[in-house]
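so my prof wants the structure for this chain in the tokens format not the other one, which i didnt know existed until like an hour ago. anyway here's the sequence
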Amino acid sequence: MNITVNPVDDAPTVLNPITDVNVDEDAANTVIDLTN
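here's what i got, hopefully its the right format
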């Protein structure tokens, strides 16, 4: 078995971007659901 790994210089991509989330500094804990 031979395995060849070739380096790739591509920028990372985001498959499912989320909307902007703003939370005040002294606000209660905030849970952000990152599931698809």
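also thought this was worth mentioning. The radius of gyration is 19 Å.
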